[in-house]
Design a protein that fits this description.
The chain is an alpha/beta fold. It contains 21 helices and eight strands. The chain is flat.
């Protein structure tokens, strides 16, 4: 079902004022709900069909975030002209390299590709080219960039998203979930065509191409230093001994969650870790007296958690974690710049003004014009010469794309040339 009439304009009421565009619900895949591909024989047929298809291929993946450990994919959806839609079960078929090989040279259309590509890589699926419909929407200045909003804006179709956060590791997958999954790729290529046309008209096609390639080739993130420090509510812990207890509980929880393939937050909530670190119980009885440890599952594993607490309490002082946290090469929080480095504070204020102006001029969100962390680093530790060439080199070294450098380097050079008589504390 397509809402061709709804794309051509907006309806008008009796007073002549434009009304909201008509959005037609997209409720059924055009070819019906395909069977789940979970055998080598079925996969071979899909590989042959998609290899013989034409044009770009729409790709999506569903994870079980909040239910399972890690971010791996539990369903991979594809659609291509001449091949139809395929729903592939990577739990049953963990190696999808044959499918990836059949699509070498083919453009993959994804929405928010940075979220799906890491999981697809675990199944040995590597795109040759990418078109990211979410990134395209951002570069076009669209107010809402979720898939449903973009589909409605470009095609006049309503895409339901009620199953986006379900447990996709469930087997067998309910029919309603499979319908939802198939619809996620049903019109993605059509959305891509509309967005590509808009990018060309706006003169942003090359910008988009550079962004898509950056997403496609992005290396995996480096492992976090002391990841336990990301426990929610950790700011309430102010001494090293209690931080050691947090670390031991986090490490024990992570190991247990990995072994059981369960999301760590479902094994033991962050709030329980913080509560134990504040109370420092000396026995299982004292631990289970805490409200955060009164649940059936938490009480059943109370000896495990108490052992972790005891290990943190027994650590020698020399092995306690630093209250300040690990050393970082990142600049301090901007609110402290005016006192520590007034010139840097003035640079950041001027730079943010320049970014805001360019964002409005080109209808691109400020964070897509230039990564905020890179902007802060440049202002805190600028090149010795604040001319356009030096700034361009620093931005390039920091990972900015050529189109971003072309816009930002001259604007920042002009901003930094303004006399820094006073320093304004950045928000």
């Amino acid at each position: 079902m397509r809402a061709d009439d709804a794309q051509d304009g907006t309806a008008t009421g009796d007073g002549g004022a434009p009304e909201a565009p008509v959005v037609v619900p997209l409720t059924e895949p055009a070819d019906g709900i395909p069977p789940v591909v979970d055998t080598p024989e079925a996969l071979a047929a899909v590989v042959e069909a998609f290899g013989a298809g034409t044009g770009p291929v729409a790709v999506d993946a569903e994870r079980a975030s909040g239910y399972r450990y890690g971010q791996r994919s539990y369903l991979v959806q594809l659609r291509r002209e001449g091949a139809g839609t395929a729903l592939v079960d990577p739990a049953a078929l963990p190696d999808l390299s044959a499918l990836s090989d059949a699509l070498v040279g083919v453009e993959w259309v994804l929405h928010a590709a940075s979220q799906d590509l890491p999981g697809l890589l675990e199944q040995n699926m590597r795109p040759s080219r990418v078109f990211d419909t979410e990134l395209a929407a951002r570069l076009l200045g669209m107010e809402r960039v979720g898939l449903a909003a973009v589909v409605a804006d470009t095609l006049g179709l309503g895409l339901a998203k009620e199953h986006s956060a379900v447990d996709w590791s469930t087997r067998p997958l309910p029919t309603e979930w499979l319908r939802y999954a198939a619809l996620d790729v049903e019109v993605l290529v059509e959305v891509r065509q509309v967005l590509a046309e808009r990018l060309a008209v706006a003169g942003k096609a090359e910008w988009a191409a550079q962004e898509f390639e950056a997403v496609r080739t992005a290396p995996p993130p480096a492992p976090r230093v002391e990841p336990w420090r990301r426990v929610s509510g950790l700011h309430a812990i102010r001494d090293a001994r209690r931080l050691a207890v947090v670390r031991e509980l986090w490490t024990t929880r992570d190991r247990n969650a990995r072994q059981r393939d369960i999301s760590p937050g479902r094994v033991l909530p962050d709030a329980a870790i913080v509560a134990a670190a504040v109370a420092l119980p000396r026995s299982v009885a004292q631990l289970t007296a805490l409200p955060a440890f009164s649940g059936k599952g938490t009480r059943r594993r109370a000896p495990l958690w108490q052992a972790a607490i005891d290990a943190g309490l027994a650590l020698p002082d020399a092995e306690l974690p630093s209250v300040r946290g690990p050393k970082s090469d990142a600049p301090p929080p901007p609110r402290a710049w005016a006192d520590k480095e007034p010139a840097a504070a003035a640079r950041l204020t001027a730079a943010r003004d320049a970014v805001t102006a360019l964002s409005a001029e080109h209808s691109v969100p400020a964070e897509n014009l230039l990564q905020p962390d890179l902007l802060r680093r440049l202002c805190w530790s600028p090149p010795s010469a604040l001319d356009e060439g030096s700034i361009a080199a620093a931005l390039t070294a920091g990972g900015a794309r050529a189109w971003q450098v072309g816009l930002m380097a001259p604007a920042l050079a002009r901003a930094f040339a303004v006399p820094e008589d006073t320093a304004v504390t950045p928000e």
